Amino acid sequence: MMRALTFLVLLVTSLAVMPSGQLQLIDALRASHPSALGALAVVAYPMGLLGVDALQLPAGTLSPGLACAAGAMLGALAWHRHAEVPLETAA
User: Fold this and answer.
1) Which domain holds residue 64?
2) Is residue 72 part of a domain?
3) I need a labelling partner for 39 at 20 to 30 A (CA). Which of 2, 30, 59, 88 fits?
4) Which pLDDT tens digit goes with each residue over 35-79?
């Protein structure tokens, strides 16, 4: 998990340093056809979606990010249901 977070931090930081990387991700987000880079851009550079009508984007661009978010939420709900968390009292 820590490696995944480190990778995302490095990716987003490198995008801020290299403007050409930002341009490639923005172009992939605004493309009329879905691509793997566009799906990565939704997760790694969500600021590129500012000012874009999400209903005009191809479904393949938004679907992976939305599926990951929904899966993470369902996983957290499933974990919470089976977790044994002791109640603490403030005395």
Assistant:
1) 2-82
2) yes
3) 2
4) 888 888 887 777 888 888 878 888 888 888 888 889 999 999 888
